[in-house]
């Protein structure tokens, strides 16, 4: 067994896609040296409860309690409360399990008691025994709004209620101008030996994090430490609607397309062997290119990619 | 099968004790002619959720979904969310089942959306198929505070958390001076052919209802229509801590003791045969006395008492 690398890592993450890599990292490194900065643009208030899907997906995954088949929620979950909420005429398009509800109730009550979203997230990950710090991108709400063929939709309405069937015309992060990075976010980027951009949707998982004033700038200032794992392989999303959304917005739904979005703050762009032909074009954007297997179907794949990323040489100063 | 009496009934009710009689009434009369005025002094906010125990006990009982062994909550309930709330460091002395949580989430969200407690209660009973109207005593919070040997306790803390072990020194209904009867409460009393005071704790189930300005006065004005079922039989509570609380407050924990508390607004006081010897003393308070079996161990007993009450002659005008 190789010894665990002693690098301090900051990971920039969405939900299900990111959690595959994060689980690999959590297992191959000292998890106390890992800080995860999580998208909260997906957050939504339903039934008066503040729901932070990506924070919960990351936390449940690293706690080892996630429903691995779905990638979210508790394993062996029941949905008794949701069934009764529906009987009371409340919307039930967003799945809320009974155990999961405790998280939302606790977070909502914590906020009502004057705590911040960061403090609530920290109490949840500690209660669930997660050893890595999990930070929301911001303590203030920055809901992602999809301007679509059906009008403006909250991202969860677009993703879950409308099952990505509406055509995307634009993406906005409401109130992002006045949002500030949550405490510790900029410091985690600055202090990290390596910053990993997880293979998440560049538009609506990484995009909202980059849009919080100060975060993209901090990444740029640490560009040689930034390693971005491309979420598109062979022109298809590893997970979710990235490819479709990129295409509907007139962008290039390829590794190169993602590279263009990340070129200003990324030192090393990591692509799958399937996209090796795009290496030269990506290099021309001013980044190193690393070719690593990025499709993570098993825990072994997740560990392998994590180890590979930690072993890459740092990018040359630019 | 005798035909169902066509009397309009208003019932003044607490929780578990009252629900036995209410279930009997619901079955032997046209439930559309029954209006139930329920104690909300027991209401409490836990984990940010507004919980109305007596409203829910009555509603679940009449909906046929109550856990009959406990007298509250859903039958076949699970407690997954509560277990996780406890893991997050939240108090778990108050049992909240997963299905039951849907009721509290719906009520809390309804209030946040600008609805009244009455409107929330009505939506819940309608969703659960209850044909009788269920009204909170008031739409504003009137928490029952027990001044005890351990200092002031919310009634639920006294009852559930401290299991009635603190010595009662006094009872207060906070903010009751400014509370008003919920819409329909006074009208239900006025319009009823018969008003039943259910066999509930006189101090902390019926007491809070009587304390809402206007309700006791309306009962007095309709005294001859008021039939009160004594919750104390042979010096013991049928249910709960009534006897102990009466004794600790220096009051008579007997049928006569309860009769004294109700004499100003009750036309007919209903006692169990076990207390027949107190008939003359109760009559001397200015009420008719009816002797009926009031111990309801089976559904047949509940129906029998309900039928007996509906068959009693009205009290003479006083």
Written account of the structure:
The structure is a homodimer of 318-residue chains. The relative contact order of chain A is 0.15. In chain A, helix 1 (16-28) crosses helix 13 and helix 4 (98-112) packs across helix 5 (117-127). With 318 residues, chain A is of the alpha/beta class. Chain A starts with 8 loop residues before the first strand and ends in a 7-residue tail after the last helix. In chain A, strands 5-2-1-9-10-13-14 form a 7-stranded parallel sheet, sandwiched between helices. A 3-stranded antiparallel sheet of chain A has the order 7-6-8. Chain A has a two-stranded antiparallel ribbon with strand order 3-4. Helices cover 37% and strands 17% of the residues of chain A. In chain A, strand 3 and strand 4 form a beta hairpin. Chain A has a domain at 9-42 and 138-143 and 174-311: 3-Layer(aba) Sandwich (Rossmann fold), CATH 3.40.50.10680. Chain A has 13 helices and 14 strands. The A-B interface holds A 47-49, 77-78, 80-85, 87-90, 98-99, 101-103, 105-106, 108-109, 112, 123-124, 127-128 and B 47-49, 78, 80-85, 87-90, 98-99, 101-103, 105-106, 108-109, 112, 123-124, 127-128.
